[in-house]
Design goal:
The complex is a heterodimer of chains A (159) and B (137). Chain A has 159 residues and is an alpha+beta fold. Chain A is built from 2 helices and 4 strands, in the order H-H-E-E-E-E. Chain A has a domain at 39-139. Helix content of chain A is 45%, strand content 19%. Chain A has a 4-stranded antiparallel beta sheet, with helices on one face. In chain B, strand 3 and strand 4 (109-117) form a beta hairpin. The longest helix of chain B has 58 residues, at 2-59. With 137 residues, chain B is α+β, with helices and mostly antiparallel strands. Chain B is rod-shaped, with a radius of gyration of 27 Å. Classes of the chains: A alpha+beta (159), B alpha+beta (137). Chains A and B meet through helix 1 and strand 4 of A and helix 1 and strand 5 of B.
Chain lengths: 159, 137
Amino acid sequence: MRRARFKKTPMGFTALGAPSILLVFVLLCLVCFASLSLVSANAELRLAARLAQNTADWYEADALAQDRLQRLDALLAAGGGAFDEAFKATLAAEGFQYTPENGEDRIVFYTTISPYTAIETLVRVSGGKGALMRSANVVTEDLVYTELPFIWNGVIQDD
Amino acid sequence: MNARHDYAFLAELTAAALFFALAATVILTLFAGAQKRADEAARLSGAVLAASSAAELVRTSASPGADFMAAYGAAPENGGYEAFLDPSFLPSERMEYVLRLECSEENGLCRMRVAVMFPDGEEIYSLSCASYAGGEA
């Protein structure tokens, strides 16, 4: 019986069988999925940290606004309800803006939350006492957006 | 001849096994790192929501301590008030996390600190807030 003779082909180091190639392919896929999952988890963590920081900043600013409200009450009590020039200057020196409206004495002040936002607190004054009318978040500066690289907007010059 | 083929097969198999082991280690490390970060992110987000909910309650309240105790089933503890939260950061009897409120009042201004921490005292998140009783709406 004659043995079948196979033609010998030279096999280098890189010559791998199909199972090995499949193994490498599967492992590469797994590495890709693992990396994507790590990137996604990292983004989640950064977002959570930013949310935590923004929340803490807002409450800190609000606490400062409450502090200034207390200071304003003390100033109003000391001033006796008369809005003369000296008293207005004292208020202005402490960051309180006197803004009379519709015959009412009103004072507004801003407490910074971030470079672009602040808490606006509006107080109506009557009889030397202040009453809180509004406390709201306001945008104080125009947001500066990062300039993006050119992105085709779908309009062709010849159109 | 046969021995040489067997050796080559064994060498390729060993190389494949080593490569698989190395790759599996890398993959498991990456997945474990991702899981750890995702858990940390979820915990921090939950703690922020729990702390800000409690802060909203106490900063708009005339008697923060009493309202905090009523809303969260808290009890006075170490000069503050402590309530237990479940893994979803909701008030519960199960002590997975601790929500703590500290208050100090001076001339109508009540300064408060709300913290979410582990039962062993390690802090996850905290924020400070205040309410001024003199500023009537």
